[in-house]
């Protein structure tokens, strides 16, 4: 996207320069030149004995100016149309594409009885080197699996593949024994919640942001989610409590509080499969420990948790740890 954007900016920069230059010429110099040439020809015609009066010359110059103005409008309209057609060509091509809903018609509903399995999973972004190469992992239902590894090793990418944000080759990623490409991705996303370290909050209160995720959530549900996200004490310390305004993009609260609010919002969806992407990156050690204990309780109650983290301490309650830095990937076992 960056490469294409740079090319587009380069082309349209030149177009804008040409447009400005042509606008100056057509609006200023050319009309004066056109009128001057017309006057010169008329003057020569009079001086050489032609039957042309000065009044007629003035009329000719006036009508020629009107003619040129019309021709200029026609030319500019044609140029503008060509530019607009070029500019919106890609937009129309996107509109003509089949949407994701059309692609998911007739696919199987999401059902997971045993787990999620990767079999020789490979993935690379366009124009980039392969990030995941012949990966063989299993994520058992009702267990907490932690994932660690260096930056850029594909940890977060794997979560994106599980939620269907990126296309997967056939027969490389399974839900139980069903190829993920045969599963309705909208149904999958209804039953899987991904909580990311990248947080966006809308202007409004804490309650407003939570209810955007789960409009039907009861007060008891909200209280449970806030408690599991270690936010109960913080909310209680605010003069307006849950009615406190978070400001534009949540700027009126700290990064750690925004992160925990995102966790609470994710838990409100009440899905039994949680994908956690660096959800403790902005938390202090004490809060991180409490949060880890709460996720441990969820896994013991039947939640399936796949958690990416640079902090091994946060994953100490995980049932299994996968290290992307290890050359020996876990063996594959199809359900």
How large is the count of helical segments?
A: 10
Oligomer: single chain
Rounded average pLDDT: 83
Q: What's the order of the H and E elements?
A: HHHEEEEEHEEHEHHHHEHEE
CATH topology of the largest domain: Rossmann fold
Radius of gyration, rounded? 32 Å
Number of strands: 11
CATH class of the largest domain: Alpha Beta
* Morphology: elongated
- Side-by-side strand order of the widest sheet: 8-9-10-5-11
- Spatial separation of the terminal alpha carbons: 38 Å
Tally the structural domains: 2
- For CATH, the homologous superfamily of the largest domain is named as P-loop containing nucleotide triphosphate hydrolases
> Residue share in helices?
40-55%
Strand-pairing-aware structural class: alpha/beta
Low-confidence stretches: 331-335
Which CATH architecture of the largest domain? Answer: 3-Layer(aba) Sandwich
Query: Mind summarizing the main beta sheet?
Result: 5 strands, parallel
Strand content: 5-15%
Write a short abstract of this structure.
This protein has helices at residues 2-47, 54-96, 100-103, 155-162, 185-191, 206-213, 219-228, 232-237, 255-267, 285-300, and strands at residues 115-118, 121-123, 132-135, 138-140, 144-148, 173-175, 178-179, 192-196, 273-277, 304-308, 320-323.
């Amino acid at each position: 996207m960056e490469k294409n954007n740079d090319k587009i900016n380069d082309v349209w920069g030149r177009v804008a320069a040409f447009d400005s230059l042509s606008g100056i010429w057509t609006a200023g110099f050319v009309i004066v030149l056109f009128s001057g040439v017309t006057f010169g020809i008329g003057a020569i015609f009079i001086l050489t004995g032609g039957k042309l009066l000065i009044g007629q010359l003035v009329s000719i110059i006036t009508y020629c100016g009107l003619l040129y103005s019309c021709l200029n409008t026609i030319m500019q309209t044609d140029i503008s149309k060509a530019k607009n057609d070029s500019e919106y060509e890609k937009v129309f091509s996107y509109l003509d594409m089949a949407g994701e809903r059309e692609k998911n018609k007739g696919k199987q509903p999401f059902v997971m009885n045993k787990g999620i399995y990767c079999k020789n999973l490979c993935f690379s972004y366009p124009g980039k080197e392969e990030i995941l190469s012949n990966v063989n992992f299993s994520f058992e239902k009702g267990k907490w699996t932690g994932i660690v590894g260096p930056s850029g090793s594909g940890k977060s990418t794997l979560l994106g593949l599980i939620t269907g944000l990126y296309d997967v080759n056939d027969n490389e990623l399974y839900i139980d024994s069903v190829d993920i490409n045969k599963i309705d991705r909208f149904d999958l996303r209804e039953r899987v919640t991904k909580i990311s370290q990248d947080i966006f909050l809308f202007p409004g209160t804490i309650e407003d942001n939570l209810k955007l995720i789960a409009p039907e959530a009861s007060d008891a549900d909200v209280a449970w989610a806030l408690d599991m996200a270690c936010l109960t004490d913080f909310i209680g310390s605010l003069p307006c409590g849950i009615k406190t305004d978070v400001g534009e993009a949540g700027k009126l609260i700290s990064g750690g509080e925004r992160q925990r609010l995102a966790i609470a919002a994710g838990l409100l969806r009440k899905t039994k499969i949680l994908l956690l992407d660096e959800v403790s990156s902005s938390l202090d050690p004490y809060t991180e420990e409490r949060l880890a204990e709460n996720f441990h309780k969820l896994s013991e109650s039947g939640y399936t948790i796949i958690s990416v983290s640079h902090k091994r301490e946060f994953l100490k309650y995980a049932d299994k740890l996968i290290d992307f830095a290890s050359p020996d990937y876990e063996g594959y076992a199809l359900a």
